[in-house]
Amino acid sequence: MIHVAICDDEKEFVSEMRGLIERYSEEKQNEIRISSFANGLELMEHYDKTIDLIFLDIQMKGMDGLKAAEKICQQDEEVGIIFLTSLKQYALEGYKYRAVNYIVKPMKYIRLKVELDRWIERFRNKNPHIVVTNDSGTFKVMLNTLHYVETYKRNLLLHTDDGEVISYKNMKELEKELVPYGFYRCHVGFLVNMEFVKRVEKLNIELTSGETIYASKPKKKEFMEAMAEYWGKRL
């Protein structure tokens, strides 16, 4: 899932943008969560680090888009920003804040589609992650920090650099999501990031973090073949 925010003080434009993004989501069959904010101050006060991309109007009352972008970049270096403006001269200034691009209003669907296609391709290659929602909130889990996943009391427990996160998805759902990024289902109860595998001894899989998980006998041969292929690509 991708989390997109729209920050603009024109309600009609926000509604139009939401409709265009929903159309894109349906056409591309990409799950997109949309949040909207009326101005830069509201965006800052309710900023959510699960946001991946912000469509940010430059000219707004109170805190304008450039000031909001400056503050956001101080706390979130990964978020993408596409500036919205009615005046081209403001757009160039936006690049100081690592803007992905700018769009001159009014918005047309073909332009939005091109920008989202370009950004999503670049984003997925650069920052692969999953979004996990549970009773404690919503979390963006970067895959290069995720060591392994295990079944835990009918849920899943994600072991990351920053601690453990519970997910209410089932293992089959998460396996489908993570396999393209170097994860392998080595056991009915374990899904491991092969980047963190240090060595395999019998059915024990030692991770670089010092943790040990297990491979099942039926999956051991396929897992070792997958590991050999993965390590081969890393050489």
UniProtKB/TrEMBL annotation:
GO molecular function, one term: DNA binding
SMART domains, per the entry: LytTR, REC
Pfam families per UniProt: LytTR, Response_reg
Biological role stated in the UniProt entry: May play the central regulatory role in sporulation. It may be an element of the effector pathway responsible for the activation of sporulation genes in response to nutritional stress. Spo0A may act in concert with spo0H (a sigma factor) to control the expression of some genes that are critical to the sporulation process.
Protein name: Stage 0 sporulation protein A homolog
Organism annotation: Clostridium scindens (strain ATCC 35704 / DSM 5676 / VPI 13733 / 19)
Gene3D superfamilies reported for this sequence: 3.40.50.2300, LytTr DNA-binding domain
